Amino acid sequence: MTASVLEFSPENTRPFLQEVMEQSGQMLTACYQCRKCAAGCTVGDETGSFTPNILIRAIVLGDRETALNNELIWKCVSCYTCGTRCPNDIQTARITETLKKMAKKAHVQPVLPKVAAFHDAFVESGMRWGRLNEMEFMGVYELKNALREAKTKNYETVVKEFKTQAELGLAMLKLKRLHFGFLFSKGRGEIKALYRKNRYKQALKAKRG
Amino acid sequence: MEIAYYPGCSLQQSSSLYDHQTRMIFSRLGVELKEIEDWNCCGATSAGKVDDFLAVVMPARNIGIAESAGFTEMVIPCSACYSRTIVAQKRMQDNPELRDEINSGLTAKIKGSIRISTIMEVFLNHVSPDLIKQKLTHKFRGLKPVCYYGCMQTRFPYNVPASDNVENPQAMETLLKLFGIRALDWNYKTYCCGASAAVNDPDTALNLMAKIMKEAAARGANCFVTTCPMCQMNLDANQEAFCKKHDIKERLPVYFITELAGAAFGISPEDMQVDRHFIDSMTLLKELEQNEHKDK
Ligand code: SF4
Ligand code: SF4
Q1: Torsions phi, psi of B184, nearest 5?
Q2: How far is the CA of B154 from the centre of ligand 1 (A)?
Q3: String of b and e for A51-60 (b: at least 16 CB within 10 Å)?
Q4: CATH number of A10-105, picked from 3.30.460.10, 3.40.50.880, 1.10.1060.10, 3.40.640.10
Q5: I need a surface site. Which of A16, A124, A190, B11 has the fewest CB within 10 A?
Q6: B102 or A49: whose pLDDT is higher?
Q7: pLDDT for the residue A1
Q8: How far does the CA of residue B82 sit from the closest CA of chain A (Å)?
Q9: Does the beta-carbon distance from A80 to B151 stay under 8 Å?
Q10: Whose C-alpha lies nearest to ligand 2, atom 4?
Q11: Which residue of A has its CA nearest to B192?
């Protein structure tokens, strides 16, 4: 007997679907593929027609590989148009946000590594000082990018990126839109402590299953 | 009257002109903005993409500070900061356990439900139209703005009631009408400018911005008006780039609503630091001012 083309095995499908639904807080099984989200998606023209409804379909079918490896989860700009228009109250943006986190945990290389690096650097900087220092943050972010590109000997990209950023920086300097003082908040310790405590709690919970 | 004020990181750095204008305009209108003590970064959209708990804790601490200082309302001009803070508040209201967990580590505890407002809500709820009319010195009949709201003022990833119509907000149009300025109707008022994609995925972001620009130009607009520092920066700093990429001839100033308010009240563009825009934004205001004098 030849294998069928579509293989649907509930044993494998359900755990992934369940995991995404739980972490994103979205009732994915309510989606009836009306494509209202797709019609409104800001980045619909940029993702090679991989629209929010297709992402949901992939998850419902348990296709973990496709769900973690597609342009939409990295190009999604969190504009929340999809969720505002969905007749079933599904916020696809919260699913793309969840899948970014799952990809990171599973060490899946992001389709757009710069996007992942940006958000990591942003949060690290905001946590480190309690306030975001734009110049420090951009420096760390660009350095991380340059290191990654250098690993694959992609020096041309590095030079181009530095040139673009230097031009912008110069323009901003002229307009006095660069800030040279340093911002910080004394309360950052409170946030860090709460964050650590919660991470610990989550880890315990995961261990207990 | 006194309102707590959360400027957020960008209003102290690349968009400090907006902070300057906001304080100046509201003090003229008798609304005292009191910056809350030792506020911290709200985490913007990034926190939600990295850690869900962090996305609530960061803005939560600021809410606690404002409430502990006795304020009943806090205004947040930056749309991203506003959105993150109001969402965090809603999530804690819906989940008392989460609120208690956060309160356990905060010096300034979160109590109830301080009102979190956009700058437009403060204009429309706390300043009487009569007072605004009294302050007007200029009419600017030649101004043809399109009001650009972006994403974060009316659309939320949680069930937060929007302060304006979700798809067709009207707050800026209403205020401009009080100034005697008629905004043009258009389709892209809540379309996304790409936000941080301008930095981390510029190919995508420039395409999005070009769509906004094309529609504004096609409607005959001679400027944009916005309340969001991120939208302002994106459309202003990248305008040369996205116009070149998409063969657009026009260049349009991207004004903060505070700049048009100031202009209507007779404050000079220099005093408002309008000369800190990337696309020349002084000429249009100056021309209008002169034409205004000729009219008299
Ligand atoms: S709008 Fe909602 S129900 Fe319709 S396809 Fe999109 S997610 Fe599914
Ligand atoms: S939030 Fe993301 S998925 Fe939803 S419409 Fe915007 S870009 Fe598309």
Answers
A1: -85, 150
A2: 20
A3: bbbbbbbbbb
A4: 1.10.1060.10
A5: A124
A6: B102
A7: 44
A8: 14
A9: yes
A10: A82
A11: A79
